[in-house]
Design goal:
elongated; alpha+beta; two-stranded antiparallel sheet; 5-stranded antiparallel β-sheet; 52% helix; 388 residues
């Protein structure tokens, strides 16, 4: 028995030595598996908890929205449940609001119609005038150098400023505007044909000098150009000679044209303006400027700033005698200057105020050329500020 027990004990020992290590290893594997399962379970549980939180917040929002809707519904139902007596004033108010809305709509429609079809402009008989706020003051007028001045708004035929406007005075080379008008009125006048300066064109009255020597030959177009732009006396004398019937017929035609233009106090003795007997008034010279403006050649030539002339045996360069035009100080359509000792410095202009409104300015008898120029600048400033 004892041996049997020993055998059993030995067998148990061998069993323990063989089986126990395997069991230990199996236990470790089992523990690892259990840990893995536990880890998976925890992960799944975490996901469900997150979904539950998300679902809860969404449900809360839905509940809040539904509760708000319910609250609004309850307030609507409460209003709807108001007694019938309160409804009548509400209907009255609604009718009042509807009537007010209708009146407002009618007013808006009328306003829209007024905007869509503006009322016709109201015409007034207010005449244009020079304004003191534009410098047209008594003190400023005292600084005008010219003895005779006339400013006429051609658009309305309104005199804007006058000084000795009806006083007869020598006009000097302003005469050349009438010379150009009468000369251009000839029916057949080939402008390209050349015209020669002769002894008859010399100034035997004032003995003035000219760069056009006897024998110089110019086209008729160039003769007109330098007579108007540079006030060339021999060119104007040659033009007055180049007329059917000669110079006497030409001077007679000049005086007849002056009468036809409504210039009774205007008189001409020659075509250059060197005679002090060539006279007019500032007011009547406005009619001469109007007539000259109807001729395209007079407009172009009087406003040109410079030109080179072929005289047959060389060339001469001429510039505009009017510094207001030469330096672009005013915008004009016609101009002419003039000077002899008896007349002083003269200037006539047809200005375009704001580049569109014609105003005629005639100035006679300034003591200096600068005085006449400054008068033109001052008057142009009055006009540009005062007129629309």
């Amino acid at each position: 028995m004892f041996r049997t027990q020993q055998l059993r004990s030995g067998n148990d020992l061998r069993f323990s030595l063989l089986i126990l290590p395997g069991l230990r290893r199996a236990g470790m594997v089992v523990r690892l598996l259990m840990c893995s399962v536990l880890l998976l379970a925890l992960t799944a549980l975490s996901g469900k908890v997150s979904e539950a939180h998300a679902a809860g917040s969404t449900a809360g929002k839905h509940r809040a929205a539904s509760s708000g809707a319910k609250g609004r519904n309850r307030s609507v139902r409460k209003k709807a449940a108001a007694p019938a007596k309160a409804r009548a004033p509400a209907r009255g108010r609604r009718r009042g609001r509807a009537a007010a809305a209708a009146v407002a709509a009618t007013g808006a429609a009328a306003a829209t119609a007024a905007v869509a079809s503006p009322a016709p402009a109201i015409t007034t008989n207010t005449k244009p005038e020079l304004l003191s706020r534009c410098g047209f003051t008594e003190a400023s007028r005292r600084h005008i150098f010219s003895r005779g001045v006339y400013v006429l708004d051609e658009e309305t035929n309104t005199p804007l400023f006058e000084r000795n406007a009806d006083t007869v005075a020598p006009i000097a080379s302003v005469t050349k505007l009438m010379t150009a008008i009468v000369w251009l009125d000839q029916k057949s006048l080939p402008m390209a044909n050349r015209l020669e300066v002769t002894e008859d064109d010399l100034d035997n009255l004032k003995f003035t000098h000219s760069r056009l020597s006897v024998g110089a030959s110019l086209s008729r177009a160039d003769m007109l150009h330098i007579a108007l732009m540079s006030s060339e006396n021999r060119a104007a004398a040659a033009m007055s000679r180049d007329y059917p019937g000669g110079r006497p017929a030409f001077i007679a035609a000049m005086n007849a044209r002056a009468q036809a233009l409504g210039m009774p106090h205007t008189h001409f003795e020659n075509g250059t303006g060197l005679s002090p007997e060539n006279v007019s008034t500032p007011r009547e010279l406005a009619e001469l400027v109007k007539a000259a403006n109807r001729y395209q050649l007079i407009r172009n030539d009087s406003l040109d700033k410079q030109k080179i002339i072929n005289i047959g045996r060389g060339q001469l360069q001429y510039i505009n005698s009017n510094r207001l035009i030469r330096y672009g100080q005013v915008n004009a359509t016609v101009q002419k200057t003039g000077f002899i000792n008896e007349s002083g410095h003269n200037m006539v202009l047809r200005l375009l105020v704001h580049d569109r409104r014609p105003v005629i300015v005639t100035m006679l008898g300034s003591g200096t050329a600068d005085g006449s120029r400054l008068d033109g600048v001052r008057i142009a400033k009055w006009l540009n500020c005062s007129l629309n």
